[in-house]
Design brief:
Length: about 260
């Protein structure tokens, strides 16, 4: 480490200063009165030399201290430069690490994008497959539903035909006037209607003397009822299936 004080000795300069001052005093005391020109010059030279010898160590010390201060500043600046070099090295290392991280990030991003595209393509293909399967299933269910509706219509038509035949049989029994036959056929008819009611098919009978309602009743051959028409008899019962009308009751109007 550089010393903070100058190593220049002071005693030679103090001795030389004392010697020059002694010469000046000697000239002043032993010289002519007034002093001659050369004596005055020599006196001034001795005083000036003594003053120089007195002040030179301080000047030299000041110069040395300034030099030491500048050296210290240079040393500090060098240390700062070294620190700057260290910081620059750290920045360079961090930059390299950032570049590597950025490169790895780009590779991961590209891999992720490729994976996402692959997943999107597979998802699209799967959606298309599901859509096709759904369309095929809907078409199959539509065909099955239409088939069931046709079968239900055929079944309903057959059951209504059977109930119509049972109603015609009961009407024939009523016309025969045989009470035992009427009771047996009536019980058979009630049993058939009760079985049909269990599957949602209900029989609707028109009552004699009831006002004609085109929503509930119909006439043979689409005849037009007159004003204030009244039902005389029921020719064929009407039917509702699960609350919906299948056929209105076929009636004959009471004649005035």
């Amino acid at each position: 480490m550089t010393e903070s004080k100058s190593s220049l000795p002071w005693w030679p300069f103090l001795a030389a200063d004392a010697l020059f001052l002694a010469l000046a005093v000697l000239l002043l005391c032993q010289g002519h009165k007034p002093l001659l020109g050369w004596e005055a010059v020599l006196l001034i030279a001795c005083v000036a030399a003594g003053a120089w010898c007195c002040f030179f160590p301080f000047l030299r010390r000041n110069q040395d201290e300034q030099a030491l201060a500048q050296a210290g500043l240079l040393a500090d600046a060098l240390n700062q430069f070294q620190k700057i070099d260290q910081v620059a090295a750290q920045i360079t290392g961090a930059t390299n690490q950032w570049r590597e991280f950025q490169q790895q990030t780009e590779e991961v991003s590209a891999s992720t994008k490729s994976l996402a595209d692959s997943i999107a393509a597979e998802a699209k293909a799967f959606r298309e497959f599901l859509q096709k399967a759904n369309d095929a299933e809907k078409a199959h269910l539509r065909l099955e539903a239409e088939k069931l509706r046709r079968e239900e219509g055929d079944w309903l038509h057959v059951v209504i035909r059977i109930l119509d035949h049972v109603s015609a049989l009961h009407l024939a029994a009523l016309q025969s006037g045989q009470q035992g036959l009427i009771e047996q056929i009536g019980q058979f008819q009630n049993g058939c209607r009760d079985a049909a009611r269990r599957v949602g098919l209900a029989v609707v009978m028109a009552r004699e003397g009831e006002a004609f309602d085109p929503k509930l009743h119909q006439l043979q051959e689409n005849a037009e009822p007159g004003e204030h028409a009244v039902i005389g008899e029921t020719l064929a019962p009407g039917y509702t299936f699960q609350g919906q009308w299948v056929r209105r009751a076929l009636v004959a109007l009471k004649k005035d």
